[in-house]
Amino acid sequence: MTVTSQPRPDLAAYNEITRLEPGAVVAQLAEILGKNMTALLAGVKDSRTVDAWIGGREAGRKFDVERLRLALRIAKMLRGRDDKRVVQAWFMGLNPQLGDRSPARLLRDGDLLTDGEEVLSAARAFLIGG
């Protein structure tokens, strides 16, 4: 008898995103969350900077690609079950799993290791029970 296991909901997204070039990470994140929310996650004021990153131009400021990779991983996980509108609302809303903090702001302002893990866990909980 062969035992099959279900992969974690974010494993496919992790495997795909790990291989992406930084500009592609930004482009895919902007496709799901929109350019304004992508700019918010990257800590920039203007979506024109996001356009420059997508086009391969740095626009005078580097972005934290690992922070955006994690955001894209979570967005793709959620997008696998819900439409963009729901994913965007999840990122911006006050999340009870996160002490009523917004996942987007926590990803932007928080420590990538500890806060990023907390946001990832909240996304998994949303997929299981939300």
Short description:
By secondary structure, the chain is mainly alpha-helical.
Description:
This protein is mainly α. It has one domain (11-129). 64% of the residues lie in helices and 0% in strands. It contains eight helices and no strands. It has helices at 11-18, 22-33, 35-42, 47-54, 65-79, 84-92, 103-109, 114-129. α3 (35-42) packs parallel to α7. The longest helix has 16 residues, at 114-129. The protein is globular, with a radius of gyration of 15 Å.
Oligomer: single chain
Low-confidence runs of at least 5 consecutive residues: 1-6
Strand content of the residues, in percent?
A: under 5%
* Strand/helix succession: HHHHHHHH
Rg for CA atoms? 15 Å
Mean pLDDT, as a whole number?
A: 88
Topology (SSEs and partners):
Layout (H helix, E strand, L loop, with lengths): L10 H8 L3 H12 L1 H8 L4 H8 L10 H15 L4 H9 L10 H7 L4 H16 L1
Helix pairs in contact: 1-5, 2-3, 2-4, 2-5, 3-4, 3-7, 5-8
Which properties best describe this structure?
130 residues; mainly alpha; 8 helices; 0% strand; disordered N terminus
